[in-house]
Amino acid sequence: MRKITAGLFIALDGVVQDPQDWHFPYYNEEMGTAVDGQLGAADTLLLGRVTYDSFAGAWPERERAGGPDSFFARKLGDARKIVVSRQDLTFTWRNSEVLQGDLVEAVTALKAEPGGDIGISGSVSVVRQLLAAGLLDELHLLVHPIAVRTGQRLFEEAESTLPLTLVRSATLETGVVHLVYGPGRQLAGGYEQAARHLPEDAQD
């Protein structure tokens, strides 16, 4: 079974919109290694339409330019890219195709195919749907020490909670915290249980 991982740049207040406006000052070699470990390790990319358009508008040119980011750009270009969209699209970036059919059904089938990891970058609506369906194996959050205070947040309001399990964490030199979550289970308990763990007055 293939593993699906998603990576997002996220502010301290949960904002994930337009990270290009606030996250570049924090991007260093450590973060590059974290991104490559999640996205660069995948041989298939699953992207929402907006994220795909952003990538397709930048990475092919960066590959042709041959700059310091051309190696990563070539890795993205060589990967199979599946775009979640209800529209018929015309692609100019190689190895690109539209996801066919229902998202959950198609991704379930994709996980069962032979191959390496399936990576997601950004694509918030896709991440939300796969989390809700229990299809996301790892959620990589690069939490930046900044409150953007406006814009779309990762988690929408909902009537049910979404428990996750912290798989690992690391603090980068810039103060960014790399958190990796996997599926979790809902814990039971209330205040009476918590009260047993409150500190007691040790004085006579």
Automatic annotation (TrEMBL):
It comes from the Bacteria. GO terms for molecular function: 5-amino-6-(5-phosphoribosylamino)uracil reductase activity. Residues 2-177 form the Bacterial bifunctional deaminase-reductase C-terminal domain. One of its GO terms (biological process) is riboflavin biosynthetic process. Transmembrane segments: none annotated. Pfam families: RibD_C. PANTHER family: BIFUNCTIONAL DEAMINASE-REDUCTASE DOMAIN PROTEIN (PTHR38011:SF2), DIHYDROFOLATE REDUCTASE FAMILY PROTEIN (AFU_ORTHOLOGUE AFUA_8G06820) (PTHR38011). This is Dihydrofolate reductase. It comes from Nocardia terpenica. The lineage of its organism: Bacteria, Bacillati, Actinomycetota, Actinomycetes, Mycobacteriales.
